[in-house]
Amino acid sequence: MKDGRAARSIFAGYHPLVNYLWFAYAILVPIFFMQPVYLAVSFASALAYSLYLGGRKALKFDLGFVLPLMVVAALFNPAFNHKGVTTLFYFHYNPITLEAVIYGIATAAMIGGVILFFTCYNAIMTSDKFIYLFGRLVPAMSLVISMALRFIPRYTAQAKRIATARRGIGFDVGSGGFFARLKSGGEILSVMVTWALENGIETGDSMLSRGYGLPGRTAYSNYRFDVRDRVLIIVFAALMAGSLACCISGALAVMYYPMFVMESVRPFARVAYACHGAACLLPLALELREDAIWQRRLAGVADAANVPDACHCEERSDAAIYVGLLRYARNDGIVRNDGIVCNDGRKAHGAI
């Protein structure tokens, strides 16, 4: 999910501390506060942001993995947990209660939302950002965690490359009988284990030669905590404080067993819902705002270059559009050789 919009995400351009705090809140709150409205808002926000970043690839993952997992989780609880006073029906002499069904749906929403937030985390938080945040505090642990987070996607990509190469020489893992496919898969696994061990040795030698872990060693980073990071973290801290304060105060108390009871009509509950929803949708709002700015700039480019159909001009390559882009950039005050740069110094999306 590093391609497409994820590769040019405006939220990924913020300071790693801002990214990490938002993901920590978005992931931990649904886990520790099994509040139905919070779970619904978190899942909807995670689904929307995942689809925005990943597009069709994320849609296939959501429908092919997350949705079936949620259905299994929702059915698992009422099938084996028979607590509750409201019996809906009996299945093989076992009562299926309303409370167990509601708790199963809440658990499914929590699992689905957390998984989707982790897919967004994988697109926004790189291993460099994680090491930047925790490299000096716990260098060994931060390195292990960052390597583990990127190990699975790298392992999957390498396995696909090996399978494609073997298919080119007539050893397709999907052809032949059961034992032939099993043998081909075992050979791929053997190559992958060798590759992983060799890669680990090379990584360790490289780190040793660079003096990793030595006292007084410095590290370069190009992350700066600027004005926009301060503004965003202040807004997020205010929303998070309002949401967590209502949760801790008991205004959002919910009881699943033996009877489902939810305190949701208090005025503080509505404030908490609004704060939580705004906090979860904050990165997506930034992305949509940036897209709107970019569309307005495309319209200005079309006017400057006298080119119709500005919405598709980034897919065209004629000289008139390029001249119009440069002319519009110079009029706007900032231009670089590699394309258009926004007023705050960030390169615009899809720049030529």
List keywords for this structure.
two-stranded antiparallel sheet, single chain, 11 helices, 6 strands, mainly alpha, 352 residues, 66% helix
The count of β-strands is: 6
Termini separation comes to 23 Å
Q: What number is the mean pLDDT?
A: 80
Number of domains: 3
Shape: globular
Largest sheet: 2 strands, antiparallel
| Tally of helical segments | 11
* Gyration radius, rounded: 25 Å
Order of helices and strands: HHHEEHHHHHEEHHHEE
Helix share bin:
55-70%
- Bin the strand percentage: under 5%
Low-confidence stretches: 307-318, 329-352
Strand order of the largest sheet: 1-2
Query: Structural class from helices and strands?
Result: mainly alpha
Written overview of the protein:
Helix content is 66%, strand content 5%. The chain has 352 residues and is mainly alpha-helical. The protein folds into three domains: 4-130 and 223-280, no CATH class; 136-209, no CATH class; 299-340, no CATH class.
Topology:
Blueprint: H1 16-32, H2 36-54, H3 56-80, E1 87-91, E2 94-97, H4 98-124, H5 127-134, H6 139-168, H7 178-209, H8 227-249, E3 254-255, E4 261-262, H9 267-280, H10 282-305, H11 319-332, E5 335-336, E6 339-340
Antiparallel strand pairs: 1-2, 3-4, 5-6
Helix pairs in contact: 1-4, 2-3, 2-4, 2-9, 3-4, 5-6, 6-7, 8-9, 10-11
Give a short overview.
The protein has 352 residues and is mainly α. It has 3 domains: 4-130 and 223-280, no CATH class; 136-209, no CATH class; 299-340, no CATH class. The protein is 66% helix and 5% strand.
